[in-house]
Amino acid sequence: MTQGTRIDHSVILDLIPQGAKVLDLGCGDGSLLAKLVHQKGTTGRGIEISEDGVRACIAKGLTVLQGDIDEGLRDYPDRSFDYVILNQTIQVAKKPDVVLSEMLRVGKKGVVGIPNFAYWRMRLYLLVYGRMPKTEFLPYDWYDTPNIHFCSILDFEAYCAKKAYTIEKKIFLSTDRGGRVLQGVRPNLFSESAVFLLSQRQT
Amino acid sequence: MPHRKEPGSIGLVKRKFFTFCEPPHEMALEGGGRLGPITLAYETYGRLNKDRSNALLILHALSGDSHAAGKYSPDDPKPGWWDNMIGPGKGFDTEKYFVICSNVVGGCQGSTGPASLNPATGKEYGLSFPIITITDMVRSQAHLIDHLGIERLFAVVGGSMGGMQALQWAVSYPDRVVASIPIATTAKHSPQQIAFNQVGRAAIMADPHFNDGDYYGKEIPKDGLALARMVGHITYLSDDSMSEKFGRRLRGKKTFGYSFNLDFEVESYLRYKGDAFVNRFDANSYLYITKAIDYYDLTLPSGSLVKALEKVKSKFLVISFKSDWLYPPYQSKEIVKALMVNGVDVTYCEIDSRYGHDAFLLDEGEMSKILRNFLENVASRNGIAGPAVGT
User: Fold this and answer.
1) How far is B91 from chain A (nearest CA, A)?
2) Fewest CB within 10 A of the end CB: N or C in chain A?
């Protein structure tokens, strides 16, 4: 991911209302969570698997649990957060389907940021070189990548439809030229990533 | 970030004493016994701020004492047991916090315990000393905190048995603790943990000099106590740390002795640890304190840890160590889960150390930095200032 402004962070900050109760799954070094706490006055909690990430979060004064998001949500009561965020993390989850349904159980709404595997550069890379795409954003080789569950924007939307998750908002992002929100056509081809605001109808 | 001085030593320190529950008062103990008067040995480092809000209570483990940092005299061979964590610029920064550490009731390093004289008989208590619990330890510390004029502790911190006390403080005195930091501990002693403690107690009681605990002024049950310590020590290390520290190296010889004398370094190390322990620890205290640890079960009486932690108001930092097989991370995670369900602001860090349970005494995974960062943030959020600069 390109460092600096992090277009995905500003998009997510815009989605979260002031003072909300937020859980950030796979919060890394806590940079998004810190912005949410300081700029949006949210009550923020993070779950992060790496000790380095946890230490960085503690240094930022954040509340963080070291743990695995694949098993970490079980103990949270239903709807205990206003928003649960899963940004650029779904592809490393062992069971993305379980994580998604759990996040929409413990959160009233979910914010999911995904890398789009159908981005034109990826398609071109595979077409031209015949090898697994590598980008600045996804720099790993097939054998050492932590990313085990890729999908495209269309895949994700289809999955939400299948599970009857409501997509309240979707924002398509390009990280070309410092990162910007795409308004145009064919997002599945032209966006490198996307952010979805999801909710689940209460039964 | 402001420039930080190199972490330093607190320098020379002094042990102090505080006595309470003097006649006609007595403390009613959880196990039904009564005790009084009670003396606690304690040490303090750093200074209280104006509103007395920067006090940090350090809680020691089974064999610890009030001497957590500094030296008693310039030629003391060793500083206090957590000297690497306590001092100017260290994890528990004595320039900012007023650090207190007391020896537990039942101990043998200056606090009232089985080796103390029973005022009723003029003789040592021995096994007539009442059974004490972790809750009793914490209640007696609350007397000391009252005496020091501190209404609310900024933080309570401890590893192992000290972690149980840190938990218990947040439960027994929810309004008196801003932050609790239980390290490498459990809310409920497990059968394996009880089993190891029982081996230690059995070793002491099987010593021919034990004499039902009445050995003061006579030959002491030193073989039993040394054996107890040896078993304990094995549980504090890890397979990795023992391999690294000793390997299969032989002690003072090049080939096997083919006898039952000590061959391996690990054997002589354990022997040394056991013998050294006998010189500073009372066997009866070992019995009483291990029993207090074994009785610890915060889930009682309801059976639910979530319920037990319902009234907690402190912020929590829970730390465990991956290679700690005596107090494995799952036990810390249970505490974290129950706190989480109660909506407590809890941070959990599992440090990737190879040194087993002992890791909490070392500065593994930059534990001091984690503690310093956590405390600084809690202090600034709660408007807790350091002591005034100067005199």
Assistant:
1) 13
2) C
Chain-chain contact of A51 with B350 (C-beta, under 8 angstroms): yes
Cβ partners under 8 Å of residue B328, min gap 6: B320
The complex's ipTM works out to 0.91
Are B309 and B280 in contact, with CB atoms under 8 Å apart? Answer: no
Q: What is the pLDDT of residues B121-147, one digit of tens each?
A: 999 999 999 999 999 999 999 999 999
Identify residue A7 by its one-letter amino acid code.
Answer: I
Domain enclosing residue A87, as ranges: 7-200
Residues 6+ apart with CB under 8 A from A165: A100, A104, A110, A198, A199, A200
Q: How many CA atoms lie within 13 A of B383 on its CB side?
A: 2
Which CATH number is associated with domain B16-189+300-381? Answer: 3.40.50.1820
CATH code: domain B195-289 is 1.10.1740.110
Dig out the tokens for B26 from the structure. 């007595």
Is residue B163 within 8 Å of B183, Cβ to Cβ? yes
Res. B391 pLDDT band, cuts 50 70 90: very low
Report how many domains make up chain A: 1
Chain A, residues 29-58, CB within 8 A of chain B, namely: 51, 54-55, 57-58
Q: Does residue A2 sit within a domain?
A: no
B256-305 pLDDT, tens digit per residue, is: 999 999 999 999 999 999 999 999 999 999 999 999 999 999 999 999 99
Residues of B with catalytic annotation?
Answer: 160, 324, 357
- Model pTM? 0.94
A5 touches chain B (CB under 8 A): no
